[in-house]
Amino acid sequence: MATQHSRSAARVMMAPAVVLLLGWMLVPLIMTLYFSFKKYLPLRGGDLGWVGFDNYVRFVTSNAFWPSVQATLVIVGGVLVITVIFGICLALLLDQPMWGQGIVRILIIAPFFVMPTVSALVWKNMFMDPVNGLFAHLWAFFGAAPIEWLSQASLQSIVLIVSWQWLPFATLILLTAVQSLDGEQLEAAEMDGAPPLSRFWHIILPHLSRAITVVILIQTIFLLAIFAEIFVTTGGSFGTKTLTYLIFQRVLESQNVGLGSAGGVYAIILANIVAIFLMRIVGKNLDA
Fold it and tell me: What residue spans define the domains of the chain?
C-alpha cells in the first residue's frame, strides 16, 4: 500500500505535467474570451477597444450561424450512424476465420492513418469528379447521367468522406469488444435453437454497448471540429459550412478576430451541450 510519503512524491513529480497541460488548455481559452469582448481587426486598425457582448450578438444573429450549427449536427449524426452500423458489421466479419485475415484487417484499418486533406482530395478528384471520377464512369456504364456530388449532394458527400476516415477507428474498437465476447454463451444460445438475429440482438449487441459508447463519445469530440475535408472539397459552399468553418471565415477571411473568438466560445458551448447530452443518453453504459 502506498504511504503518505510516496503519494506526496508522486504528486510532486506529476505537478509539472499537470501545470503544463492546464496552461496548454487555459491560455488559449482565456485569450479567446479576452478577444471576444474586443473589436480587433489586425489589418484594419488593430485593437479598436472593448465592445462588450456585441460580437456575441452579431455572431448569433448572422444569417450563417444557425445553418452552420445545423450542418455541423447533420454531419456528426450522419457519420456516427454510418460508422457504428458498418463498424459492427465489419467487426463481426473480421472476427470470422478467413484466409489472409491479418492482411484484411490492416487494409480496413489503413484509411484511419491517411491525412484528412489527402483523403478529401482523393475522394474529390478520383471518385466524385463529375467527368473523370470513378462514380461518373459507373453512372455512365449503367446509362445514367453523372452526379455532381459536391454541389448536388454536398452534405452527403462530406458525410461519406468523413465516414470513410473514421470507419476504421470504430471497427477497431468494436472488433476488440467482439473478440472479448464469451464464445460459450453464443454456443449455448445456438444449441438452444436461438436464431442468428436473436443471438445478435440479445447477446452480441448488449456486449458491444460500452464499446459503442466509447466510439460515439470519441468521434463526436473530433467531428464537431471538422474542417479540412470541407476546406478541400466544397470550401463551405452548398450548405456545408459548419460552425468551425464559419469561425475560420470570420477570423482569417474577414480578419475579425473578435467576432471569430465569440464564435469559438459558441463552439465550446455547443460541444459541451452535445457532450452532456451524449453522456446522459449513452454514457450510462460505462457504469454498467
Answer: 26-287
